[in-house]
Write a structure and sequence with these properties.
By secondary structure, the chain is of the alpha/beta class. The chain has 4 helices and 11 strands; from the N terminus they run αββββαβαββαββββ. The protein has one domain: Vaccinia Virus protein VP39 (Rossmann fold, 3-Layer(aba) Sandwich). The longest helix is centred in the first third of the chain and has 12 residues.
Length: 216
């Protein structure tokens, strides 16, 4: 697939800071083809596995399948990073179930998604515009901005789910996780407009969450 360039914004800065805050011996990063946090993590590269639906990556996985499986043993990772992936999946609960399986008992999940209730989204909807990161299936890029050209004239991977903080929280709970901290990316509209420390997570352009396995 032909991948867009990832902007250097507070989404990356906040995520990098959270990755470094977790004491992790072995890390799995899903969807790392756009941007990997390995180089800035402090974790040796041999302990870091990048999995994605297309190269470049260490392991190819089809996250979009209804019966998606991660080809790893149970309880072997200390941290799983899943940034800007779930909104592309028809069955994100399946991937989260697999993440739950491969995480150790004290493992952590770091996940981020676009926030359809962000301040910028609310303004766009109010004036009659569909925000650029809103769900649009696999429409051509001139009709929707979130699908990847496949190189053969087709499109794949458009956003199919819009998330809010409450929906992501409910999905994590459904999948056996408990959020331990919520963060935001500030307001991003083609560039960083407001910094992350000025905007509460529920109004930020991206929701960023650290979670752990729920103890019932």
């Amino acid at each position: 697939m032909l991948r867009p360039q990832v902007r250097q914004t507070d989404r990356l800065l906040v995520t990098q800071r959270l990755v470094r805050s977790v004491s992790a011996g072995r890390v799995l990063e899903l969807g790392a083809g756009d941007h990997s946090f390995a180089a800035s993590s402090g974790v040796p590269r041999e302990n870091w596995v990048c999995a994605d639906m297309a190269p470049p990556c260490d392991v190819l996985c089809d996250f979009g399948a209804e019966n998606a499986l991660l080809p790893f043993d149970n309880d072997i990772f200390d941290l799983v990073i899943c940034t800007e992936v779930l909104e592309h999946l028809l069955w994100p609960q399946r991937v989260l179930s697999e993440i739950h399986r491969v995480l150790g008992a004290t493992g952590r999940l770091l996940v981020s998604v676009p926030n359809c209730a962000s301040l910028s989204y609310r303004i766009a909807w109010m004036v009659g515009h569909i925000p650029s990161c809103a769900a649009c299936g696999n429409l051509p890029t001139e009709l929707g901005n979130t699908a990847y050209p496949t190189g053969d004239g087709g499109y794949r991977g458009g956003h199919v789910i819009d998330f809010t903080l409450s929906r992501l929280s409910a999905l994590l709970t459904y999948s056996g996780f408990q959020a331990t901290s919520w963060h935001g990316s500030g307001i991003i509209w083609h560039r960083q407009l407001l910094p992350h420390w000025l905007v509460p997570p529920n109004l930020a352009s991206n929701l960023i969450c650290l979670a752990e396995k729920r103890v019932d």
